[in-house]
Amino acid sequence: MAERPVAIVTGASRGIGKGIAMELASLGYNVVINYFDFTSDGKPDESRAVETQKEIKALGVECEILRGDVSKAQDRNSLVALAKNTFGRCDLLANNAGVAPSKRLDLLEATEESFDRVMSINLKGPYFLTQQVANWMIEQKKKYPDRRYRIVSTGSISSYTSSPARGEYCVSKAGISMMTKLYADRLAEYGIGVFEVSPGIIATDMTSVVKDRYDKLIAEGLTPIQRWGLPEDIGKVVGAIAEGRLDFSTGQVINVDGGFHLRRL
Ligand code: NAP
User: Fold this and answer.
1) Chain-centroid distance, C-alpha 105
2) CA 135, 137, 143, 146 torsion: positive or negative?
3) Is residue 174 included in any domain, yes or no?
4) How far is CA 166 from the centre of its chain?
5) Which helix (H) or strand (E) holds 223?
6) Is residue 35 one of the residues assigned to a domain?
7) C-beta separation of 137 from 84 below 8 A
8) In tens digits, what is the pLDDT along the chain, a chain of 265 residues?
């Protein structure tokens, strides 16, 4: 049985998930990484996940990678099975995988198809992965009462900020906020802490398509701290959660947004 704690991080081949996985690895966690890479012509491509795996292993821990769609029950089962069979434990789950709508469409025109896609990946996937891992954590806790178990989900400023050109994304992230409250409440009796990190504008592939627009907004003072956030900014917060520094604060949303959430006058 592995002595190191183990984390499952979804959507960790790149971007924020990679930042989280790297931080956890630097804290000594063995990591199981999920990803769902496709090349631009629709073929599976594991190159980025393999590169991330290499970087994580260079930190001296074990790292397993598995391609899978978090919105599919079978793929979630395979991910949990990989952690069980390889490491026999999971101390931290980071629900991070998420997508923007493939096409930004006004609220008055947006499609059910896009709604279903975004909600399935961004909310249904983490909701049921959390259910599954939480049940496993409860089992583990009975055997190892001294171990600490934690779940953290990546929300967004979009959970409370209206962007009518991607309503389905906003709704999915508002759902993550409620999910965090629900699981924090339900799992407190088992000593499992549940948290949300709420990133602002973070430099990743997801935001690369709107880089010029956000460059301008940041320069004009949209955020009190006038810079793009980095995946490491979120990684550090998840690291603090993993180290147990927030254990009495279950259910908290930690804003990682350069102060975007502040109301200013
Ligand atoms: P990203 O660079 O596009 O990375 C997204 C990650 O999720 C990738 O690893 C991707 O895998 C994975 N993924 C996508 N669909 C998946 C699926 N169906 N099943 C499993 N994995 C899947 O995005 P990011 O900016 O790092 O975003 C990460 C999280 O932060 C998301 O939940 C996003 O909503 C949230 N967020 C981002 C920002 C921001 O400014 N960037 C702000 C607030 C919140 P592939 O490599 O296979 O595509």
Assistant:
1) 25
2) negative
3) yes
4) 19
5) none
6) yes
7) no
8) 458 999 999 999 999 999 999 999 999 999 999 999 876 677 788 999 999 999 999 999 999 999 999 999 999 999 999 999 999 999 999 999 999 999 999 999 999 999 999 999 999 999 999 999 999 999 999 999 999 999 999 999 999 999 999 999 999 999 999 999 999 999 999 999 999 999 999 999 999 999 999 999 999 999 999 999 999 999 999 999 999 999 999 999 999 999 999 999 9
Whether the Cβ atoms of residue 71 and residue 98 lie closer than 8 Å to each other? no
Residue 260 lies in a domain: no
CB of 13 shorter than 6 A to ligand 1: yes
Provide the token pair at 214.
């956000």
Active site residue 169: yes
Identity at 214, one-letter amino acid code: Y
Residue 54: which domain range?
A: 6-255
Domain count, the chain: 1
Asked if 105 and 118 touch (Cβ cutoff 8 Å), the reply is no
User: Tokens for 3?
Assistant: 């002595």
Which CATH number belongs to the domain containing residue 55 in this structure?
3.40.50.720
* CB of 95 closer than 6 angstroms to any ligand 1 atom: no
Q: Is residue 261 part of a domain?
A: no
- Whether 44 lines ligand 1, by a CB cut-off of 6 Å, is no
Centre of ligand 1 from the C-alpha of residue 144, in Å: 33
Burial 47-56 (b: 16+ CB within 10 A, else e): ebbeebbeeb
Q: Which atom of ligand 1 is nearest the CA belonging to 201?
A: 40
CA–CA distance, 265 with 250 (Å, rounded to integer): 31
